[in-house]
Amino acid sequence: MSKLSAVKPAYWIAGVLLALSIVVPLLVSTYAKDEPRLWGFPFFYWYQLFWVFISAATVSISYRLVMSVERKRRAAQGLDGAADKEAEL
Q1: What pLDDT sits at residue 31?
Q2: The whole model's pTM is what?
């Protein structure tokens, strides 16, 4: 198993999460209605606000996934940043 194929699942998961956050709010048929209401607000408004929080969560999860893979990749290559810190001194 090559290093490239070992990295792919994390990137695929991050991509799917980000695509989900973009595509679902664009599906007008999922929110083009007035009922049910939440605290007097029509469905459209609270559904869109709900997706703001869901999108923030998916972006955060995607970022953490990709950064953990990058950290592991850099550690495997010996690029942990120690050389950069020594060069600054």
Answers
A1: 74
A2: 0.68
